[in-house]
User: Fold this.
Amino acid sequence: MLRSVLLALIVACLAAGTAAAKPPLEAFGDVPEIRAMELSPDGSKIAYLRRAEGVDYLMIHELAGDKLTALAKVTQIKARDIYFVGNDYIVLVASKDTRTYWAAGRYEWSAAFAFNLKTGTYAQLLRDTEDLYPSQTGLGRIVAADPAKAQVYMPAFMGRGYEGPSHDLVRVPLEHGRGLRPGSTKGTKATIDWLALPSGEPVAREDFDEIKQVHEIRKRTAEGGWQTIYSKETRLPQISLEGRSRDGKSLFVTDARESDFQSLYSMSLEDGTISGPLAQRDDAEVAETVTDIDRVVYGVRFSGMFPSYEMFDPEVNDEKAGAKAALGAFAVYLDSWSADWSKLLLYVNGGSHAERYILFDRRTRAFTNAGNARPSITQADVGEVIGIEYRSRDGLKIPGVITWPTGVAADQRKNLPLVVLPHGGPQSHDSVGFDWLAQFLANEGYLVLQPNFRGSTGFGNDFRAAGYGEWGRKMQDDITDGVNALTRMGWADPERACIVGWSYGGYAALEGGQRTPDLYKCIASIAGVSNLDEMLTSERRKYGPDSQVYTYWKLLIGDPDTEQETIDAVSPALHAEDFKAPVLLIHGASDTVVPVSQSDRMNDALQRLRKPVTYVRIPGDDHNLVDNESRRQALTALGEFLKTHIGQ
Assistant:
């Protein structure tokens, strides 16, 4: 039920602050009780996913009358996201790990389902579409919608000929979901993105030829053909096509042509002239553009330790900033909005609160709590989060995040047991806000360091590029130097430090055990890479030697054709003899991002040498361990492991 005004939120939080017992681990590890909340275009309804007893439900909340309806129970597939198409349809995007005759190995199948709010019926979009290429990922994306005609336009690979499938723009009626070839637009196998009007008329097409290494943007001509307005020979695309203007005269792209930081530029549809920047900062980059379902751009969100927005409408810009100040939270994200922008749905976390959604009415200036994502976590349970900065051994400034253990007074914050938590990606970054894993660790009594080592995004192209070829080397030194900085400051006890990581962070944890065996008392890798050559071989086999994906990983890690020795030198599974600290491995057996074989290899290598290792191999779950029981199993093992080796 909605509860009115900000005052009620503050009172509730103050009352919750008296809680004494820490919440159970599932309060942090379980998928949020409420997630993927969206506001309807007319501002009358809110849709969201609600998880109850391990099952997801698609919910509709009609604000007038406070009516709540469960529209669907989602089983056998993983609900990922939802959004409105007009006011009468909700689209649910879901996925499932699977294997088919047409694909080598397992892959993450995805699809979209359109629910008619008036009739209660639904249809799977693109199902039974003639000539739809089998076993493709990424289905479910919509780039334009015509709510009046109840149809959308979706990119999909079509055809099975000798030349391979083409990436087309397919017209899909929401009533039955079957893609219609008449009225759809054909691309090529090199097409990677589309922009279109609500009518389905294409505006622009983006192509990247992996063989020729040519990136192009083409516009649709009045005669129905295509004209190239941008072309560049490049190993990887240097600019990113983000969306289009409301007047249809220009496109928006992000680039770093005049700055170290990615900025927003305008590209003329007439001749491809790039002008701007329209949005730029000298301390943060454009992390994402604020767009609607038709890819019309309204502003940008900047990255960095604290997210911030720059909207084209100055009033919206000012009121979004005012909302952040009024809510007193570090991280306030613009989640969705009504078509007339009179209502803004905000996703809020950080400060002294867990994740929650707030509805802001610009006309009445009222804040309304739309839902607490983690209602069992109170203000007293949230560890204080701060941003820090330290220098690596070569002088590079490394930004990081500290989460203080809950229940430890400020004057007692010294000589604390430390958990180092490097992020995944590695091209991502941690910022000041609510991180469920860091908060779980803080509630277990640990000081948590999340270092944004070189190679992380959000801090400029030079900072990101400084990580190329530095897996296990300078990137690892940045993590090590963060540990040393905290011990020099007296915050962390050097005899009680462990490293824990997920995905790339899992690799960094294992590499910490290899490269600095005396630094950590324990090592925990969740879905981590252990053999880089095996990873590169898998990506080459899966995507091809000339693919954009394989080129990207060679840039980050190295080329096995010329750098095999250096790649092997930083592959932990090949150097199990260097490990001194106990190791915990956790991996979902159905992981399609980092194959479970990576943890299998690490476990085998350590066991052969009789090194202390515990392996939690979780059947039936993926890279993110989205099942609640999987998360509970993982956190239980992690909590016991840390308590044994650095617990108080």
About this structure: Residues 394 and 550 are 30 Å apart (CA to CA). The first strand starts at residue 3 and ends at 4. The chain has a mean pLDDT of 91. Residues 628-646 form the longest helix (19 residues).
